[in-house]
Amino acid sequence: MSRFRLYPTPAQEAALLEHCKHARYVWNLALEQWSMWTRGQRPTPGFAAQCRQLTEARAAFDWLRAGSQTVQQQALRDFQQAVKNFFGGTHRRPSWRKAGHREGFRIVGLQASRVAKRNRKWAEVNVPKVGWVRLRLSRAVPDAKSYRITRDRAHRWHIAFTAIPQPIPAPGTGEVVGVDRGITVSAALSTGELLTCPGLSDRERDRLKRLQRRLARCRRGSNRRRRTKDAIAKLHARARDRRKDWVEKISTDLARRFDLIRVEDLRVMQMTRRPKPIPDHDRPGAYLPNRRRAKAGLSRGILANGWGEMVVRLQHKAIGRVEKVKSAYTSQTCSACGYCAPENRKSQAIFRCVACGHLANADVNAAVNIAAGRAVSARQETPPRVSPKREPQHATSA
Q: What is the pTM of this model?
């Protein structure tokens, strides 16, 4: 998708918020109907039946009739597609939409192509029942048949046109690169490059801590609490924008420089889930420690370094040129002789093979193993532990 920043007037912003409210209301009603189904009952209403129900609701309620029928019907169509994706196993279960979270709506059809360029920096898009809204031209507007307008928690409006960009062609040099993702070093390449995802500065992190402490003291529903939440949202949006910009630049650079890109096969979604509570059988109603705080810090580090976003963008830009390698023992295997032992990893950054004495950066050593396809399975293909006194065994690349 090609996303642009929208700059609506105060009156247009109020109309856009009404569209978001109507889309959220229709989505939640459809989700409620779908969630009430139980085994043995008739199927829940489909898209055609829900559209007829929407027509009856618009005739009965003036506030719903004042909104755009295109926005409301598209919310129903989006929900049906979300249900199909859920049963197809590609997406999560559809969830409820809340005011202030995931605000947005989608426009499909001829209305989505009404974009007029005013000058080199600005253009306008015609939104139903809102009018011409200005957008900043950061790139050329693609020819799309639909777009989605969203508002983030920092109260910024964006428009995303649905268009599939052309993939980046391979350079044809035959070079292969391995990418090892980490917390301290966001991405280590087999070429020896260490890449770090930019985040908040020390001054911004200190301000974030002060705002979070102030938020804990604010009374719920007060204006002071609202202003504090807005200030926190702006800092998080700033960090998110920097991470996205870094991911786009790094993924484009890798797709242009290398023919084959190998990464670890990591399940980022499962790795960042909240740990399940452990019931204490000796004390009914009580729970055992599950290291929730430590797990939360690790999850924040994984998400802040853009592990999942990088691989997704690489797969979009370098179609068919991204391979996932098993991550087992890549950080403990020597890239020079193939000896695998936990003692090789001296610290987070130092790798020294106890068999051949090879010294390298630990993340770069893992990236070289990934580039060579030397990752092994933790069950059956684990290489034998070679004594340092014996002649080291050289691993063959997979």
A: 0.82
